[in-house]
Design goal:
467 residues, mainly alpha
Length: 467
């Protein structure tokens, strides 16, 4: 089911492509497509259009086999005395399921099916042409024609990595690399394609993270589920690199469905890889930051100075979208989710640590000044950080210090914050003096910041809190 949800977008693209070829896929193989089903022949092909037509044709045949197998299985389970009418009814309902939504149970196809092998080979070849040769036109990937509404079945299970790689390439080929400007139009065009279908594509990518049964291989979870989740995460982050898609996802209409599930559920997944990937997606969602080196803005032109200006504008745009979202949804994101869930003692170690790092990044970014002032003006937030400052993990205490120092450095501390710091300053000073003392020799910035925090605490004077 996860695969059905996660890769439904490819069904639309493939069926849209094959529907205009005027060639009905036959049960004999390629349905008129000129590429041989022999793997060696496919691996030598350099015609992307032809490869895509081959994928569409083989997909159509595999789908027909899948539906036929589904009908046969359903019919065999009908009681003998039900009569031919019941069998026909089952067959009719199975055929009608071709137009059902993607939540319907997918039919299965034998993994050794020739068409599945060809689909895998062709997708691998397309990926190679795009990534390694980086010399082919990608206009072939623009969906054309009508889109068939039949269910997506897991007929490309073995090719899902190539599918994800192709999707990611089309989104970022114009953003990364020294020759990114040559492919800017491709990234922009495919980004627009994804945005037009965002309610289908992005929703399914987020649902692809619902992998709560990873501890039960073979029962709706297991490594296959983990692999799909990680691929969906990669595809989602590639989509978020486009400002228009990023802004759409953080809008009031979609953030509840597409953003909050990560903070409410996915970051706490018991599988380390899944939770870490979800936390990385949360970091991108809440900061707009790019981790890929050499990244540039969509449509950036040549010239070092012009490219630098474009990259800076792109960075400001992304950070502005994130900051506006945090200001608008401060209570829902910071108070109700990061503080009460991700930083609580009930959260796992990795969630608390990475959430602290994320919080520090958000508060120390000058574009988030209003968010920072609101956060450090709360005495409850201070109590939360003080508790983390005494955590048994040295990594968490160091991350907590990066947030604690902002409370102390605030020249306009509210009286209730001053009172907490003043009442506990003796204990705090003594504790801080021994906090990561060994680090002071190698980290000059940490040493200076800790000395300033201690000096500020020692200079605090008692202030009566507001009544």
């Amino acid at each position: 089911m996860l695969e059905n949800q996660a890769f439904g977008w490819l069904k639309n693209a493939i069926s849209g492509t094959s529907s205009t070829s005027n060639t009905t896929p036959s049960t004999t193989g390629n349905g008129g497509v000129r590429i041989s089903k022999n793997r060696a022949a496919i691996e030598c092909c350099s015609d992307v259009h032809m490869l895509i037509e081959g994928v569409g044709a083989d997909f159509g045949v595999a789908l027909q086999k899948s539906l036929a197998a589904h009908v046969a299985t359903a019919a065999s389970n009908v009681k003998a005395d039900a009569g031919d009418a019941v069998v026909e009814s089952v067959a009719a309902s199975s055929s009608a399921s071709a137009n059902a939504d993607t939540s319907s149970p997918p039919a299965t196809v034998a993994e050794d099916d020739t068409h599945l092998q060809d689909i895998t080979s062709r997708l691998d070849r397309i990926k190679t042409l795009l990534y390694e040769e980086r010399s082919v036109s990608t206009n072939a990937f623009h969906a054309r024609g009508s889109v068939h509404n039949y269910n997506w079945t897991p007929v490309v299970a073995t090719a899902r990595k190539s599918t994800s790689a192709i999707f990611n390439y089309l989104l970022v080929c114009g953003l990364d690399g020294v020759d990114a400007s040559q492919f800017a139009s491709v990234s922009t065009a495919f980004g627009s394609y994804v945005l037009e279908r965002a309610s289908d594509i992005l929703v399914q990518l987020v649902r692809g993270h619902d992998c709560r049964q990873v501890a039960a291989p073979g029962v709706g979870g297991g490594q296959g589920c983990v692999d799909i989740t990680l691929l969906c995460g990669s595809m989602l982050r590639s989509s978020l690199r486009h400002p228009a898609i990023y802004q759409w996802m953080l809008s009031d209409a979609w953030c509840i469905q597409l953003v909050y599930p990560f903070l409410d559920d996915y970051v706490d997944n018991p599988n380390f890889d899944v939770s870490s990937d979800a936390l990385e997606t949360v970091r991108v969602m809440l900061t707009g930051a790019i981790t890929t080196s050499g990244a540039s803005a969509p449509g950036a032109m040549g010239g070092d100075q012009q490219q630098m200006t474009s990259e800076e504008q792109y960075k400001q745009t992304m950070e502005g979208i994130a900051s506006e979202f945090l200001n608008r949804k401060y209570t829902e994101v910071i108070d109700e989710r990061i503080n009460k869930k991700c930083l609580s003692s009930e959260a796992n170690y990795m969630t608390r640590r990475m959430s602290l790092q994320l919080l520090s990044t958000i508060l120390l970014n000058r574009v988030n000044y209003n968010v920072m002032m609101r956060y450090i003006s709360s005495s409850q937030n201070l109590v939360t950080i003080l508790c983390l400052l005494r955590d048994p993990s040295p990594h968490i205490t160091l991350d907590a210090f990066q947030v604690f120092k902002i409370f102390v450095a605030n020249p306009a501390k509210p009286p209730e914050v001053v009172k907490i710091l003043f009442d506990n300053k003796v204990k705090l000073v003594k504790y801080l003096e021994g906090l990561h003392k060994e680090r002071e020799k190698s980290d000059e910035q940490y040493r200076d910041e800790k000395a300033l925090v201690i000096a500020t605490l020692e200079g605090l004077e008692e202030v009566n809190p507001r009544s």
